[in-house]
Hints:
six-stranded mixed beta sheet; SnoaL-like domain-containing protein; NTF2-like_dom_sf; Nuclear Transport Factor 2, Chain: A
Amino acid sequence: MNRTVSVGQAPDYDQIVRVVQLYVDGFQGGSEKLREAFHEDAWIFAIDAQGALGKGLVSDRFERWATSHRPVKGRFIAVTQAGDIASVLLGFDNTEDLSDSWVDVIALMKSEGVWKITNKTAAHSSRAAWAKP
């Protein structure tokens, strides 16, 4: 049996978007923003332009990301919430070089009233079909 459910705007939309925006802003020298956005045990899985898979703890990348000062902009494509879990489909666009852009699926969880990113799955924009910039 197939059932389609229509989903309205996420009740915690503003809070969820704020946390994901902290992640985007962290690339402008904000390792403290990255620590606030991500759960300490958050993981990343990413496929680059050549199809190679990278994975690991997100926290291992904080310093590199924060010191990169990449000119990025978050493009919120979709935000979905089901109680204390949520997902964001995010265009992670390099504003100076679109060939260095990504599309992320961000998973979040609300624990003790606080939203945190628990997982980031990313594809280089060249592998993101309709979602690329």
